[in-house]
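Project standup — Tuesday

K.O.: blocked on the structure for the chain from last sprint. Re-posting the sequence here as requested.
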Amino acid sequence: MKVEYFGLTDVGRKREKNEDSLFVSGELGLFMVADGMGGHLGGEFASRIAVKTISETIEQLLKDPEATLSLNLGFDRSDYGEMLKYAIRVASYRIFEEASKNPNLRGMGTTTVALLIQNGKGYIAHVGDSRTYLVHEKSIKQLTNDHSLVAEQLRAGFITQDEVKNHKFRNIITRSVGFQSEVEIDLLVRDIESGDRFVLCSDGLTNMVENQDIEKLTSKSDPKTACQELISLANKNGGDDNISVVIVNIEEN
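H.V.: unblocked you, prediction finished:
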């Protein structure tokens, strides 16, 4: 199968700086979005550390599964999902260590959503409220569950879907990479199929653009055009936050 991909990030219309970071590599089969938060410069710093650390760790392990690792955490090195979770744990530790050295960075952290494609499978790991969607045959499905206060209240039945978008606590997340030295990571593994379109994005997109519009623009365009059109629509609808989108299309050779 052939993988086509593109990633784009934009500061939006309301923020002075972009605290999102992204990473795309067809060679590694690795794609990521991270949305940073906290401290004077902490959000930008945390998201950059996350994508840099995760990508470097995955590259090291793919090249040499027996490589000496920076953290002594046991995991099955033949399991790509466990490899991805390990890389995120390393990133969390490094962000936390940097924050402990610098008072201006204290409390920083970042969401992280990552897709690793290996041997016909997609390994999706995430922390926070950045999301992965699957668009296939004119349907869209959110594959990740937000780690946020409103999402937990919604799942528990305390609020309705209509109340989520304007809820005063909608920006409070319950998990992040780097806020603590250890982090709980959700992992999903699925077989990839021709026609799959994976959309990884920060909440700067999902708070501004409806799911049906994400599906429509992703289905009809190549990854680069779809990223551009989605960010343009998010800004047209208000652009309240930084906006990051990575689209990965799976096609027959």
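K.O.: great, moving the ticket to review. The chain is about 35% helix and 25% strand. Residues 2-251 form a domain with the Phosphatase 2c; domain 1 fold (CATH 3.60.40.10).
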